[in-house]
Amino acid sequence: MPLTRRRRLPAADRARLDLRPGDKVLVEVRLADGRWAVATRRALHLLEDEQVARVPWSDVDRGSLDPATRVLTVTWVWGASSRLPFEQDSTSVAFAQTFRERVQQSVVHAVPVTVPGGARVRLALRRDEDGEIFTQVLGDGTVDVDDPAVSAALDVAEAEIRDAVGLPR
Description:
By secondary structure, the protein is α+β, with helices and mostly antiparallel strands.
């Protein structure tokens, strides 16, 4: 199927983006379902009707592009996921590449951790929108991080991961 011509985000929609100082649009794409997805330096913006969802890159756990359906499945750090169905245009490739780069840029270092009880989580050092580094625990929602044994194991792992990248504990 031939690629269609690239569409531009309408000026009225661009004005609704919550661009913070130092932020700028990197790529925008019209989705097959009529929404717009906009990747900026600091966040992912999803525009649907009158709503604009702005999500910092550090809130994106991962994305997976199905080449057959041209759907990018975005998994958020809280466990939910969203589907971004691309049209047949060249901008979708640029968007997927930029999406991947921005998510990776927010990850400083990540390691798998087995906590008491045998569950596995990922402990990550991430950059927020302002470049500040923070710790993120990513799992399937079944791990009780308030359990003293789990909390102690995560504290040890956090100290090790911070040491590994030269950060103070």
